[in-house]
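My current task is to audit a protein record that another person submitted. Please read both lines and tell me whether the tokens look consistent with the sequence. Do not assume that whoever made the record got everything right. I have pasted the whole thing underneath without changing anything:

===
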Amino acid sequence: MVKEISLTDTHAHLDLLADDRAVETVLSRARKNGVTRIITVADKLESSYRAVDIAQKFEGVYAAVGIHPHDAKTVNPNTIKELKNLANNPKVVAIGEIGLDYYRNHSPRAVQQKVFAQLLDLANELGLPAIIHNRDANDDVIKIIAEQGLGKGVFHCFSGDVAFAQTVLAMNFYISIAGPVTFKNAGKLINVAKFVPLTKLLIETDSPYLAPVPYRGQENEPANVRLVAEKIAEIKGVDISAVSASTQENVSLLFSIR
């Protein structure tokens, strides 16, 4: 018998599903696994519009609007204005995903940094948390967040080590753990999951990417966030109900949703 708990997938890309019928099917499977809330996170202007549309149509779904660092080169003043208009929707709970990606470098680093600062300013202006994408850019991400003075957010799909987790926690940001914590080579992430207190942890799928074991390599979906929660409970030596209670409260505190 599946234990009844409530979970939130704090980072999914429902906009990538084919249509509203596909969204409803995925939401139905998620509910059966105890997933009561999902934040669908945008990575460009087009997906920001779609994320808000989905959030408005489906109960328990919220949206984040933003521009991924890969697409920073597409941003102009009108982009920021459109995001601001979208963010005024009551179902929008964050600016994201935004940040820096020095692994792919699809946009020049200087452009990524400029746009990241602008979007952090937008989060500050609107009183919203930021959902941070960080790949191979630890120092600059921390520097720009500090310079812009944003005091609340989450590092999504965390892939750093314990030392970097300490830096993130010192900024009062949350750390979100996704499917890779279940992988065989997850030693570093397992150490982070052990170290970070439940009061500062969130869980996510980043679906359709990064499906956890035993679905690794397949298309991911929000229902699988339960597997992430179960793995964290195993790592910490606690019941999954403790992971559920803490992460649900963290979601409510960070994103101001109940």
Remarks:
- The CA atoms of residues 102 and 109 lie 7 Å apart.
